[in-house]
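chain below, 813 aa
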Amino acid sequence: MKRSIHLTALVVLIASWVSLQPAASGQTSPPPEPYQDAPRYRAMLATYCFTCHSTRAKVGGLALDSLDLGAASDDARTWEKALRKLRGHLMPPPGNPQPPAKDVDSFVAWMENTLDSHPKGPKAGYVPIERLNRTEYAASVKALVGVEVNPKDVLPQDIQVDGFDNIADALSVSPAFLDQYITAARHVAKLAIGDPAGHVANVKYSIAASQTSDEPFPLGTRGGVRFKHNFPADGEYRISIGDLSVGLYTSTMENESTLVIMIDGNIVFRKPIGGPADLALADRKGAVGRTAIMDRFTKIPVQVQAGVHDLVVTFIDRAHVESDENVAGGFNGIGVLGFGDGNNRMARLADGIEIVGPFNSTGVSKTASRALIFVCDPNKLGDPACAKQIIERLARRAFRRPVTAEDVARLMPFYEAGRQGGGNFDQGIEQVVVAVLASPDFLYRAIRGPRGAAPNSEFALTDLELASRLSFFLWNTGPDEELLNLAATEGLAKPGAVEKQVRRMLADPKASSLVTSFAMKWLNLTTLDSVQPDPKLFPGFNEQLRHDFSKEAEAFISSILLEDRSVVELLTSSHTFLNGELARLYGVPGVVGPQFREVTLAEKERAGLLGKGAVLLRTSYGDRTSPVLRGQWVLDKLLGTPPTPPPANTATDLSQKAGEAPKTIRARLEQHRDKASCRQCHGVIDPIGLALENFDAIGEWRTMDRQANAPIDAKTVLPNGVPIDGTVELKDQLVGRPATFAEAFTEKLMMYALNRQLEYFDMPQVRALVRGAAKDNYKFSSIVLGIVNTDAFRKQGPAAAAVTELRPTEPRP
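prediction:
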């Protein structure tokens, strides 16, 4: 079915603002009313709705007068759409005769209970064969062979649906995609096996790309870069520092500091730079002197064993000011590029770090990747026998099922091809790794069902299929040994087995993918780089601050979901995670330094998602706030009622007109809404966004609009007639009915878990599990367990039911 109906003015107005009516916390729907109440509700619809939505008028293509309320479940698809609109009390449109709010509430509750009590349609939707998206591919490769790759570097962007890139219908494959997967497989295999031949290669790490490490620098150091490097073999490597700001102007040599290189926390190089001697050398000998200084930091030899190691290039220096706080603003932040852009009295990193090697290679040590792959010793077991054992274990984990003799027979020729022409055992296994990573059994997930399942019918997933669905849901990768062994012996069917696995998996660090791959994408916070604040208007904004916004959001969401708190705390919690830079922006005292730490916020305006810099930046433009984007975000993400997109060629420019006195955003929106056709949508969207106007485009609190030189007015009246003033009162309205937010959250999480968009027949299951989670205060684990116990999760529906039309992901500002 189509996920949305294009409704004209009347129905568009119903499209938003779900359940912002004040109500008691934990309010649930009243018990079902008997079908004899249908005539009363039909009379209400006839009075207020049938004028436009009749068979004759059919505004927006919707006719309600022809539907039988006595058999509402027969028209569940239509009523589910209508309910999503009606919950906001926005029908009939403003200015038309209105039914009492309690009557609308009563009808919504009655219709939901009617549809839930008499569900129609399949119990589960159909999920076609799907390939791993690039995030799943990277996570699976890391779990399988221990190689960490940046998915953006090896594969192209996947198509997004409602912000998610794991929807099966959108994960198609082209010949170009296959080429890239094969290229990626070869690259990963080479990194995993290493290079016993010791071929010399060079890699250069840029300063900008290596500055945003989330790991803290060693105590006592200032600035620098931190990154991980995969050394392909044991041997000598030579590290060169490209530029330490030893240029034509020699002031950078005035103060002495010490450059330090550390590998896995151990100092492998330490040498001073700057001071009277270096300053004199640079002054007196010019280019020759400067070259002599830099030669000390070029081709630095270090002995390293194969594998991935942590490298830090940093400085040790005495303090030249009382604290970084004193000069952070004036010098763009000491520590950003070593000691700040503006401080030119000492050396700092200005170019990349180059690593060349290995030289005099002595082979390859047992790295973490080789430990995962080489599960036997060919010298003891014999080459062919060991190769088969490696293939059996590797293929079993990669294919997410027990392997057969046929699987092994298909893969052995790749090992043999690697041995041809004098190739050694490692080279043969490298070709096996390539073959496994390029195999359709690894790259695709398919639901075939049990043997004998009738085609185009509804059937239960096998234990192995259930294990795979569960693992990709919670970990973004395939099952581990415990889950795979349990599924292979049909142990998941035992009472309590699934719940035990869910709780175990939620406690595993891999569950962090629920934050990075689900929550951040659900909230549209993975695309913060799409907003580029104007440096003239926001001189304090920089790329490090953008990174800090993202890290704060991830840490905050993790503390709610992964610590198994109520999901409603995403809206209400007064704690967050800040470093010195973010604390300054938020006006929080006592937080100094680049390390993030948990902080309890005194100001209620900052509590929950609505006070987070990441949200406020993402819902703004580069030169101003956007009540429209912010209102849309709240409606879609927090309330589950995305407003209808504007018609084509709709004017959206709110720029200040040349020659006119500057106006506030509120005043410019009033001009924008002069037309009645605009008011129908913006009368719903804008009031929500206006309540957030005290936050500027980068999330800083303000009381004045500096461009218009006018005070911020955050007072507004919601479409349901409730007046509010600012962020705190907006938040109070949102959490007044926690079930509304919990349902919006659950819908998105269930969509992510099922790898498909939800259908009308899924909604009774959604509402049932939300009612169940309410008994546990909407704890995250209760919602997860509710999802995995639904028929929608445990079954595959008939293909005939799969008529969903994919919605494009939301437009970027």
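The chain is about 40% helix and 10% strand. The radius of gyration is 30 Å.
thats it, cya
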